[in-house]
Amino acid sequence: MRIDRLSAVKHGAVLKTDLAIVGGGPAGLTIAEQCARHGIAVLVIESGLEQQDHDHEALNEVQLGPCDRPAEWHGARTAFHAGLAELWSAERQGYGVRCRGLGGSTQAWAGKSACFDPIDYARRPWVEASGWPVSPAELQPFIRQAGDLLNLCPNEPSPRFAGTDLVSFYWQFSRSRVERLDVMRFGRELLARSPPGVDVLLDATVTRIALAPDGTRVASLDVANLAGRRARVEAAHFVLAASAIENARLLLASNDVAPAGIGNPYDNVGRYMIDHLGASLGAFEPQHVARMARLFGFYGVPHNGKSHMFMHGLALAPELQEREGLLNAAVYFAPQRAPDDPWDALKRLLKGRSSATARDIASVAKGSGTLVRGMGVKALSAPQFPGVMKELIVNSAIRLSPNMVAAEFSSGGLPHKLSGLSLEAVTEQEPQRDNRIALSPDRDRLGVPLPRADWRVGMKERRTLLALARRVGTGLASADLPTPRFASWIESKEPAAAGPIDLAHTMGTTRMSLHPRSGVVDRHCRVHGVANLHIAGGSVLPTGGHANPTWMILAVACRLAARLRDEYFQAEACSKPHRSSATAQLADPVVQ
């Protein structure tokens, strides 16, 4: 594997390769490695660097179109997203969460993974634009393959809750193979493996997809960096894997040959944008926290000498969804940190952000035992810690106390002081044509029009959240379990008063379809009417269920990689491939 930056390439150079992939996130890197393994020359073009940085973060700006939002909506988004995406700001990214850098969204995710339910693929008369052109059976081998890539357990725990309207649902957490106490970061994992045949070009933002004059093929990509260096990439095949927002933006902005944008004869590019909606439904009384956390908390399942991390929640039964015309939705039970949590107080003090210094100092002093324990766990995860000793300690902990390992994992190795347990809901969003990514008249530093998100939450989503809350209340009570204090809009049965936020799972902007009238890519993720352009990532998913989508995104990416390999070898049998080293045009003597 070779990694370079665009600054090390001659200005105006033409880079040639077999397969050019736009975006170094989990989908792009998975396709790259699987194709390179079969002798295909691959160039991954990543806008950012190895890690996120402030300069490239400025390219992530997303404008939010006019829409009504409650006053607390912006604060709720900031509280939810800023904890994981360190450089993100609600002012710059009015919708969604985008990360530039090797590994893409996995630089800021929590590792939470789950498969879609069978109902998520189905044509549902009560859900507009539902139905996949690919069956669950066709995807099943690729789902297994993606689960292995994510280091997930193949065995799901047995249901812990028996009801008629609610069913047990399990999320699993993707653990790093490189750092035992962190989630999987695809950039770090790729660097550790260093697979042969994959070239990576960093600090290289694609500014235009250049079509051949007849519009039936992509001829090349224009790339640029923030310093003004430019180049062109030519390939036999191209894959857009730059996020649901960026994929649509690039197709729309590349309009010199196709005036409406590439793959957009029926005005479908950017439309049917969906996300997962999150809302807090309530919280449990302190005396019930321990009991509910044991049943629905975060725990470890031993498998083949490792502890796999699961979270148990409750989902709406498919029969109820059909009977009442509801969307797919679920709840999970989230620990709440105490206001005097010593780790949070220490971080405020160290960063000079404490608004009550004396109180934070007192919290740190009172929580000294918790801090010492956390420092020990952090020392265990440090690269200087002897590998043999680390392996022994972690394996012993897994065997003796998988729940303890899971608890450390969920907190990033920092044990926090907790004060409660909240009930959090997530629901799918119905695909609506007017929810979309469009182009703003404003442009970024590289001259590309900014994306504008027109995104609204409908009454069907709000009604689903209310129905979910009420079913959870009656279901827990019928099982002789404690019920939470519900939010006021639930108690008053006013779903319009709910203020759900986007959960940064943007999907659907280049959806799969059998016909170009209803989507952008075909069932093999090829852009309708463009022979050598494919799209990967959440943008191709027609519907999103309620499950965190990375597992499904990787399953579809694995299927696309197999398709690309087949097409490459078919073309190789007919003519000499477009093969050459993508980094052969390196300027001399520039070294990065």
From TrEMBL:
Q: List the Pfam families hit by this protein, alphabetically.
A: GMC_oxred_C, NAD_binding_8
Where the record annotates domain Glucose-methanol-choline oxidoreductase C-terminal, the positions are 431-557
Q: Which GO terms describe its molecular function?
A: oxidoreductase activity, acting on CH-OH group of donors
Keyword Flavoprotein in record: yes
Record bears the keyword Flavoprotein = yes
Could you list the residue ranges forming a coiled coil in this record? none
Cofactor(s) demanded: FAD
Q: Which UniProt keywords apply?
A: FAD, Flavoprotein, Oxidoreductase
Q: Return the similarity comment.
A: Belongs to the GMC oxidoreductase family.
What name is this protein filed under?
NAD(P)-binding protein
